[in-house]
C-alpha cells in the first residue's frame, strides 16, 4: 500500500467516535514496510478490544474501528480469517465488529466478521514454506485480500452514512 501520514490517519475513519480518535495510538509508521502491506491494521495495547484497519481505495484513505468480541473461539479447532482466508488455530482468529455510526456508546448496530487476531493478514500471507509464498502467489492472495478488505469497509461506510 502507499505510505500514509499521521494527519491522513486521523481523518480517515468512517465510524470512530471523537474519543476513539483522541485516544488512538499511532502505529509505527516509520517501521512499516509499505510494499508488503495491503492494509494497515493495529490494536490498541491499552484497550485490548479495539483495533484499527486502514487502506487506500484509489486515492481515498478509508479507516474502520473494530472491536473484538469478548472471549475467543474454542481452542483446538481451526478457523479462517474472512479477509486473508488463512486457516489458523482458532485462538488466532477473532470475531471483530465495526460499529455503524460515529456515536459514543455501545448501542446501535454493527457488522461483524472474523479477522486474524493481530490484524496482520499481510504478514500471514507472506509467511510459510517457500512454495506457499512465491511472488505470484503472494500477489494474487494480496489482491484478493485487498478486495475483501475494501468490501468490508465499504459495507461499514455505507451503513454508517445511513445510521
Ligand atoms: Zn487474516
UniProtKB/TrEMBL annotation:
It comes from the Bacteria. Residues 8-156 form the Elongation factor G-binding protein C-terminal treble-clef zinc-finger domain. Pfam families: FBP_C (PF16571). This is FBP domain-containing protein.
